[in-house]
Write a structure and sequence with these properties.
The protein has 251 residues and is of the alpha/beta class. The protein has 9 helices and 7 strands, in the order βαβαβαβαβαβαααβα. It is 48% helix and 15% strand.
Length: 251
């Protein structure tokens, strides 16, 4: 039996990248995984490859979130594991960020976590407990220039995770945050490709990681699996780095 055998898991933003890697690892370990994403075609393709279900949803929209969790309750009887992975990571200075862009980043990165947590807790209570894993960032712990709004949302996610853990410990619901640094996804490669010298941009990024390499999505998925499993039954309210030592270099 896998470490998540028989559990129902919802992973948001799971059409690609970190979310897809977590969904794949959870499915491999026996969970019944629901893939959720705003991008319907990519989400259906990902779920098809994994042999899981897909629900199209904008998790920053309370109506979509309500429909998503109604579908989980109807099809799977409720939720045991929630991974809040959906998010955006625009790079812009404070002066170059419009109020509209600020609102968008807060809505996608932070409001979504609030909405899905609010919907998940009653289902987890009904099943005797659960685990909520929120994807934050090393930038939620150590800010970086050009990422002020993104960093602020990720710091808020860490604090929200702590509050969730305290409020719902009696419900046997654990809440934890994962804080990656750079993760080697197509999105990161696209950022390198947008520079004059992509190879040099990648090398410079790697140099910021003392262990000498960028995390793969599977590295984040391995940590998520441990935190979701019974092996982590006493871990709650905490933020866990998977950053190759990058946070220490910034301090």
């Amino acid at each position: 039996m896998g470490r998540l055998e028989g559990r129902v898991a919802l992973v948001t933003g799971a059409a690609r990248g970190i979310g897809l890697a977590i969904a794949a690892r959870f499915a491999l370990e026996g969970a019944r995984v629901v893939v959720a994403d705003i991008e319907a075609a990519a989400g259906r393709a990902a779920a098809g490859r994994l042999g899981t279900r897909f629900v199209a949803a904008d998790v920053s929209d309370p109506i979509d979130v309500g429909r998503l969790f109604e579908a989980v309750a109807a099809e799977d009887g409720g939720l045991d594991l929630l991974v809040n992975n959906a998010g955006v990571s625009p790079a812009a200075s404070i002066l170059d960020t419009s109020p509209e862009e600020f609102d968008r980043v807060v809505r996608v990165n932070l409001r979504s976590v609030f909405l899905t947590t609010k919907a998940a807790v009653p289902q987890m209570r009904g099943r005797g407990g659960g685990v909520i894993i929120n994807l934050a960032s090393v930038n939620g712990l150590v800010a970086a220039p050009g990422l002020a709004v993104y960093s602020a949302t990720k710091a808020a996610i860490i604090n929200f995770t702590q509050a969730t853990a305290l409020e719902h410990a009696a419900d046997r619901i654990r809440a934890v945050a994962i804080c990656p640094a750079s993760v080697d996804t197509p999105l990161l490669q696209a950022k390198f490709d947008a520079t004059p010298d992509p190879a040099a941009a990648r090398a410079a990024n790697i140099a910021r990681h003392p262990l000498g390499h960028i995390a793969a999505p599977e590295d984040v998925a391995a940590l998520a699996l441990f935190l979701a499993s019974d092996e982590a039954r006493l871990i709650t309210g905490s933020a866990h780095l998977v950053d190759g030592g990058a946070a220490g270099r910034r301090v």
